[in-house]
Amino acid sequence: MPRPLARVLTLLELLQSGGTRTVSELAARLDVDERTVRRYARQLLDLDIPVESVRGRYGGYRLSPGYRIPPLMLNDDEALAVLLSLTTERARETAGDTARDTARDTARETAAAKIRRVLPDRLRRKLDAVLASLAYTTPPGGIADAPDPAILLPIADAVHHHRPVSIRHTAADGHRTERTLHPYGVVAHAGRWYVTAADLLSGEDRTFRLDRITDARTLPGAFTPPPDPAPTTRVLNALATAPHPHRVTLHIQATPTHIHTHLPPSLATVTPLPPDDWCRVTLHVTHLTWLPAILAALNRPFTIERPTELRTLVEEFANRLLDSARREPRH
Questions:
Q1: Which of 316, 263, 249 is closest to 294 using CA atoms?
Q2: For all residues of the chain together, what is the average pLDDT?
Q3: Which of 128, 146, 158, 214 is in Cβ range 3.0-4.6 Å of 85 for a Cys bridge?
Q4: Cα-based torsion angle of the residue sequence 2, 7, 12, 15 in order, rounded to the nearest 10 degrees
Q5: Which backbone phi and psi does 203 adopt, to 5 degrees?
C-alpha cells in the first residue's frame, strides 16, 4: 500500500474515534503538513465519506454524526497486500534503524490485528509463511514497497516449504526465460525485492528481482536448502559480484567495518588478510571516476592491484586537491 493511501486510511481511523480533530493535531499524527491534511480530507470526501470541516479557533475535521464506515471487504490478495505493507514498513524501519514513531507503530499494529481477526485459517497460514520467508538488509536508500502478491505468494510459499518454483523472468536486456528455482529466501534491499535461489537452468546460485518476474508457481517435490549463508548475505554478494565493465581489486589498511562505511556489502567484497590489518577489496563497477573520492574519504593507506587506469585517475584527483590546497584565497 503506498504511503499516501496508508495515511488517508489513518486519517479516517482518527476521525472515526470521534470528536473534532484540529488540522495541526492531524498533521502531527500523520507526520505531514497541514496542506496535505486538507488534501487527504478532500480525498475522503471523494470517496463519499462525510468529512465535515469545522471553522473557528478550535476547528478542524470530524465525521458527520451517526456515520459508520461500512464493513471492509477484501479478497485474499488484497488482504495479504495490506497486511504485507503494514508489516514490511515496520520491518523496513527497524532494518534501516530509522526514528520510530510510536503512534504510527500502534496504528499499524491495530490495523493489522483487525484484518488478521477476520482472515480464514488458510489465509492466515499463508500470510505467516510469507512473513517467515522475508528478510531485510539495512537499506542505503530508497524504500521497498510491497511486491506484487501474485509473484510474492508462490515464491514465499516455496521458500517456506522448500519446494521448487517455476518463474518467467525478463532480464535487463529484455531476454525472457522460463526457469525452475530452489528458492532460499526473499530479501528487500535498497528499494527492490529479490529472490535468492539455486537456478536449475544455469546450475548456479542466482539472484532475481521480483519486479522482473511475470509469473510464478510452486511445483511438486522438495529440496534441501543450504545451511548458510543467510539470504541477505547471498543477495549482497550477488550484487557486489555482478558483471560490470571494470573489475577493481584494492588492498586497504582498515577493518571491514570501516571499509563498508563507504563501500557497502552490495558493492564491495571485503576479505581480511591476517595477520596484518589489511583487507582485499573487490568491486565490479561500470565507471571508475567516482572511486578516487571514495578512497580519499576512507582516509586509510591503500594499494591498487587493478586496473591500471584507476592509478591514473587517483593521481589526477590528488593533483587537483593539491592545486586547490596551494591556491591563494580570492579577495
A1: 263
A2: 83
A3: 146
A4: 180
A5: 75, 20
